[in-house]
């Protein structure tokens, strides 16, 4: 895009702005000031976020780990409204209006961006009497024939291995 106007008036001794040049100069300075103000606003948002953040998490993870962090965030960033919904199901971020879903396990929905934020070690324990009665499983597949009570999801169970409590670091 061109303005198709004369911006400068030149003589052999001097260069000056035309009336159109003064108008362009005034607009350009205002635009540059707006860019500086925008940069300052963006920088300030990184330091002092504001607006709203709606997130979900499972009941167990939310109560034990996420809610305390949300409480600290609300104190630190009073201009940021944070909603935490604790549900034991996968949420549809777009359809349900969530900005963030914090879960344990592998991402099952294509198109979502996931970030690994922590390691969640799992330990499977059994009473010695139970193992005496049933025998010690040698593999994860052998666990299918046992009566196991677990809160682990299917995705996290697939990563389990069989080892003794001592091997797992449990005293």
TrEMBL record:
Query: Which keywords are on file for this protein?
Result: DNA-binding, Transcription, Transcription regulation
Q: Where is the HTH lysR-type domain?
A: 1-18
Task: Check the record and name the Gene3D superfamilies matching this protein.
Answer: 3.40.190.290, Winged helix-like DNA-binding domain superfamily/Winged helix DNA-binding domain (1.10.10.10)
Which InterPro entries has this protein been placed in?
A: LysR-type_TF_proteobact-type, LysR_HTH_N, LysR_subst-bd, WH-like_DNA-bd_sf, WH_DNA-bd_sf
A GO molecular-function annotation = sequence-specific DNA binding
Q: Name one GO biological process term.
A: DNA-templated transcription
Record's family?
Belongs to the LysR transcriptional regulatory family.
Q: What is the recorded name of this protein?
A: LysR family transcriptional regulator
Annotated organism of origin: Caballeronia catudaia
